[in-house]
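Long-time lurker. I teach an intro course on protein structure, and each term I like to show students one example going from raw sequence to a predicted 3D structure in token notation. This year I'd like something fresh instead of my usual example. Would anyone be willing to generate the tokens for the chain below so I can use it in lecture? Attribution to the forum is fine with me.
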Amino acid sequence: MKNSPEATEIGKDTFKRDIILIGIITLGAIMFGFFEASFFNTYLEHVLALDYIYIAIMVSVSAVFGLIFLLVFGVISDNTRSEKYGRRRPYLLFGSLVSGICMIIYPFSPEFIWCFILDAIIIGIFSNMYYAAQRTLVPDLIEIEHRGRANGLITVFSIIGIIIPIFLLLFVNQFYSVKRGGSTYITQEGYIFVLFLGGLALIIAGVVGFFFLRHIPPSELEPKKKFFDDLKGTFQYDELRKHRDFFRLIIAMTVFNLGYRIIFPFLFSYIFSLGLNTTTLILALGILIPVIVLITLAMGKLADKIGRKVLVAPVLIISSIGYFMIPFLRPTSILNMILLIIAIALVFLSIASIQVPLATWQQDLLPEGKRGQFLGILNIIFTTSQIPGAIIGGLVADSMGLAWIFAFAPIFLLASIPLFLRVKETLPEDLKF
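-- Reply from a regular --
Happy to contribute to a lecture. Here you go:
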């Protein structure tokens, strides 16, 4: 029998409250991550006048720190036992405070070394303290039959976390920008303004999570383990065999994210290179955003009705069409502008909407007592793919032009499909439809 959070009014209210709070915490994480992955990078280009390879270096080192510290804090939070604060909430607070302050300081950096220390090292440690806690909240608190819908709703918060930086981009594009060689460059004052808001958003999200999020009492958790004993036990042969589908998913996600990470560090640089005015950008977003939100909510409902696995291949194939279109399109006419909007909408299927079934699939495969640790292992896909992805993207952008990074990304998206098909479906048959 299903133990639905909607079985009673109290359960329904708790479910809604969990979704809103996890949504706020996720919104802060997405805003922060988007600012770090985009505005941090364009700051090197626009203010410090550095080549794309400096972006690639900073992104790559940051990825290595993420590889190490999300796993570390995942294991630590799994084994934290506090009656008053729970096992995740302290890491939300401390991680958000340090990382948020560093983001606020970042745009005052006079040279690359200061950007590198603040982003790759300090934020590389403390943002992953926050992420280790934030990414476990859905599997900790939401049951399997409702995770697709929950992830759909939380992904809408994530989309809002992307929309806010984009609208801030439009604002600074209008009031804090200069034109050089046909491209738009944001001034240092513009970066000070937007990164202050980005850092503040993470701090607020961490404080809200610390004071208002519910937690599982320690009496309901498995016994606490020592750090190295817990970590060592995961890599024993019997344990690996028990969770082989999780590791198959890691391999598929590594290939998928390699394509995604080719474009992500340079996405805002590409938007700036189009030289569009603010009115045109707002109009384009007004078309794109409602479509993406509706598709994302539909993906959440479908993931709980027909399963997680069946959605992945068709979405990646359709999304790849948009990637291949972009290098051949410039907004030089109304027709080209319409085609460019369609292409970008298709690209966002792989950036936003596909994350709903993928996140749900990942969460279903996490062992209950090691969710933070296994998400740390899963984070390997984000770090190992960031390193070659950022380098490939930087080299392609420097040698062929920025738009051509989109032509390389779908090669890896399509190559991931047969790997995803080897992973088992996690939604039980009796829960479908």
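Some talking points for your students: The chain has one domain: 11-215+226-431. The beta strands are 177-180, 183-186.
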